[in-house]
Amino acid sequence: MSFQALKLVELARQSLLSDEAVAISALQYLPEELIPPLFMEAFTGRHLKVLREMVAAWPYPCLPVGALMETPHLETLKAVLDGVDKLLTHKVHPRSRKLQVLDLRTVQHSFWNTRAGREDAGSSAQAVSDKQIVKDLPRYALRRRFKVLADLSLRFSANEYQTYLLQWAEQRKHFLQLCCSKMQIVAFPVDSIRNVLKIFQPQYIEELELYSGWNLPTLAWFSPYMGQMRNLHKLFLASIQKIKVENISTDLEKCVTRFISQFSKFNSLQHLYMNGIYFLSHRMKQLFRCLKSPLETLSMTDCVLSQCDLNSLCQYQSLCQLKHLNVSSVELFDLHLTDLRVFLESVIETLQTLELEHCGMRDSQLSALLPALSQCSQLTKVNFYDNDISMPMLKDLFHHTANLSQLTLELYPAPLECFDDMGVVLPERFSLVCSQLMDALRAVRQPKKVSFATYFCHECCSRSIYDLETSLCPCWQ
Ligand SMILES: [Zn+2]
Fold first, then answer.
1. From ligand 1's centre to the CA of 425, what distance in Å?
2. Residue 367: what pLDDT?
3. Which residues in the chain come in under a pLDDT of 70?
4. What is the pLDDT of residues 311-334, one digit of tens each?
């Protein structure tokens, strides 16, 4: 925006917002480019009447108002939704009826930078911004009916902002399309979820985070709703009843089967995160078999994996383009890792991050992975923290990473030689051993960020870390 234009905006802002009635009557005569900066002014100054009229007269296809709502404010939301009501009931000057999408998602939006004078975007601002608006929206948002986009974080119970939005949306669901792209459910009442999913239809949800605290029957009840989220890209599951596979009765078995079968309904699932999900032990094969699209991320942390689960990793096409594998806090010490090696060999072209933190691995197990690891040339991050590995084994590991030139972060366990018989770290020995290991690594290639760490201290819950310098846990200071 030029200096003259900025000055004009400032003059218009002062005169218009000092008299809301004048501002409202002048709206239809304002040049289009003055509207976004004035909207921001009305928004931050909470000039709610002006705001309502500006929404109704918005001259662009999308109003990304969520990007301005750092903290949700109920009265501002009401004014914005009143503006939409006014627009949709045709009490608006026809010239102004261009708005198609109200975007309430609190994501950064380039619109305000280019249109509202936050930066000097030059003469091509309008063209760039139109393309950008389209790019920043989900594809379904550009079709047919008026759309309201919102992300919902449902934690324990709906807050007053969400309650208002949900009621408003429910009353208008026959002539608006309500789309929630990201839904987070944290211990939210089951009946309320059913009502929310009647308003915000599941097929628009692209990301679901579920920290429910539910038992298996409740998860089974919810499962068909999850299956309706057929455009889900990312699924995060945690805090589901930690039930061991040997304690699952025939009835609960049906619940598990019902849950797993939903995975065959996802058309484009790319990222699957599961934390503390015990009931899938021995059933990963069933789950992988259901996947229809290639996964980029598979994170199974604090889970229980069996040998046949590991074996099933390399049997399915849906996993052979994996970029991120995280099996941290999964006990691997009594498993043969040959199956994991075979799997790693199948993803050497794509794997970018590998996390095997706190897996109870010993030298022989890590050794089994090395032939595959040495070929994973796309790796940018490896994490082997909290495994019982010796110094010679770590040196051997470094030799196998000679060709991994993309590595930017490497996390290794402090080797066994750094501890006394009781498992207490010996500070001087820790520094000496780790500096020798750094030298050994540098002899192989030029590393970027490297850390060696002990387990978390039982007293202070911190680690002692060596990353060129030694920082011991606070207990030593
Ligand atoms: Zn400590």
1. 10
2. 96
3. 1-3, 5-6, 8-9, 12-13, 15-16, 91-97, 114-144
4. 999 899 899 999 999 999 999 999
CATH number at residue 465: 3.80.10.10
Does residue 86 lie within any of the structural domains? Answer: yes
In this predicted model, what pLDDT tens digit does every residue of 361-389 receive, in sequence order? 999 999 999 999 999 999 999 999 999 99
What per-residue confidence (pLDDT) applies to 1? Answer: 58
Give the residue numbers spanning the domain of 351: 323-477
Alpha-carbon Rg for the chain, nearest whole angstrom, is 28
> Is residue 328 in a domain?
yes
**How many structural domains compose the chain?**
2
User: What per-residue confidence (pLDDT) applies to 309?
Assistant: 95
Only one residue has tokens 């709703």, namely 225
Residue 243 lies in a domain: no
Q: Residue 396 Cα, ligand 1 centroid: separation in angstroms?
A: 30
CA of 419 to the centre of ligand 1 (A): 14
- Final residue belonging to a domain, choices 85, 110, 137: 137
What's the gap in Å between 427 CA and the centre of ligand 1?
Answer: 12
Q: Is residue 289 part of a domain?
A: no
Kindly give, in sequence order, each residue whose CB lies less than 8 Å from that of residue 315, ignoring residues fewer than 6 positions away: 285, 288
Task: List the one residue out of 253, 86, 240, 74 whose CA is nearest residue 166.
Answer: 74
Give the per-residue pLDDT at 119.
41
- Rounded distance from Cα 461 to ligand 1 centre (Å): 6
Q: What is the whole-number distance in angstroms between the Cα of residue 463 and the centre of ligand 1? A: 7
Residues 54 and 38: beta-carbon distance below 8 Å: yes
Domain boundary residue, one of 137, 166, 192 = 137
Reported pTM: 0.87
Q: How far are the Cα atoms of 135, 232, 278, 308, 410 from residue 383, in angstroms, in the given order?
A: 35, 28, 23, 24, 6
Which residues have beta carbons under 5 A from ligand 1 (an ion)?
457, 459-460, 473, 475
Please report the pLDDT score of residue 115 as a whole number. 62
How confident is the model at residue 127, as a pLDDT? 41
Which residue is associated with the tokens 């200071």? 477
Cα 237 from Cα 276, distance rounded (Å):
8
